[in-house]
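Deliverable D2.4 — example input (structure tokens):
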């Protein structure tokens, strides 16, 4: 890359030969900004550079991400509307070798990538019965992991300033990333978006991002709910875990809650989603065709917990409609 930095290279890759890309990022505010920009440009996931200190952990994490994301080559090609085929090279017989006395002026034409027509994608399994959510609801809880930041940004950017609901977001992300992520969301959204603090009040038109390494949930202070930021459970595989967010939302504000399960590796959130549904909550799951990793949302769909299965482009509109009733 003699004339390009990492972001320039990523942009060139996604414009000419779209491929799944994993970024290796430093755990600094500058590193977080660069990584979030990379995800916006098309990178599918990132690995904290701090893991390089433990080669076994780094290697395990890298293999897991590469294997999962490599399966999404077709998703990347469709998303960026291009064929991912090698550039045609002239045959040996067609190449006219230049000589010092008479340099070759022959032009070799490299074919451009042809846009692929966007296919009609089935968004719902054939045997799945959807039951549209009824509103109004004044709390929206979002669970998301791999491939999530651009989707969350798209959803919040479409929200009106007067949205009559509070939004809580559990995104699997390191502590040093969640503050810059909240600031980026605040810049693109009419909503007020901040990194959550323990005891924050539920405010309409406000979205809270859980700090990395902590859990976000709900507690009742008298008759009123407030944001709870905790270390428990200490043994959770993910921090934040979506199970705490959706579980406490279901326990305290079930019928007032709309849950949204987006792209992500694994099945974090499935237990919390069950509690949410058992207590009258409503649930939207992102469909397979539009997600980077069909894991967390797949678990919810397979358990028949999702009321609605939607393309990423349709989720914001559904949230607005349900919240307003």
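Example output (designed residues):
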């Amino acid at each position: 890359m003699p004339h390009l930095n990492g972001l320039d290279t990523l942009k060139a890759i996604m414009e000419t030969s779209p491929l799944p890309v994993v970024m290796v990022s430093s755990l600094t505010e500058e590193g977080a900004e660069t990584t979030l920009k990379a995800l916006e440009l098309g990178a599918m996931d990132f690995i904290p550079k701090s893991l390089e200190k433990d080669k076994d952990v780094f290697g395990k994490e890298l293999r897991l991400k590469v294997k999962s994301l490599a399966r999404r080559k077709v998703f990347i090609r469709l998303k960026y509307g291009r064929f991912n085929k090698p550039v045609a090279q002239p045959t040996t017989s067609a190449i006219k070798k230049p000589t010092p006395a008479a340099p070759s002026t022959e032009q070799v034409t490299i074919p451009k990538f042809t846009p692929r027509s966007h296919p009609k994608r089935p968004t719902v399994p054939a045997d799945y019965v959807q039951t549209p959510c009824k509103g109004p609801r004044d709390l929206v809880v979002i669970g998301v992991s791999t491939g999530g930041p651009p989707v969350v940004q798209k959803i919040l950017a479409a929200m009106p300033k007067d949205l009559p609901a509070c939004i809580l977001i559990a995104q699997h992300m390191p502590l040093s990333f969640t503050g810059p992520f909240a600031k980026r969301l605040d810049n693109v959204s009419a909503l007020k978006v901040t990194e959550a603090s323990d005891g924050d009040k539920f405010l309409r038109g406000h979205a809270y991002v859980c700090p990395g390494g902590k859990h976000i949930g709900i507690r009742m202070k008298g008759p009123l709910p407030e944001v709870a930021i905790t270390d428990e459970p200490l043994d959770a595989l993910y921090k934040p875990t979506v199970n705490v967010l959706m579980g406490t939302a279901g326990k305290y504000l079930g019928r007032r809650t709309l849950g949204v399960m987006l792209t992500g590796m694994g099945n974090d959130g499935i237990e919390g989603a069950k509690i949410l549904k058992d207590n009258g909550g409503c649930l939207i799951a992102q469909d397979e065709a539009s997600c980077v990793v069909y894991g967390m949302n797949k678990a919810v769909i397979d358990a028949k917990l999702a009321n609605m299965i939607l393309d990423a482009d349709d989720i914001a509109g559904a949230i607005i409609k349900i919240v307003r009733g």
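The first strand starts at residue 22 and ends at 25.
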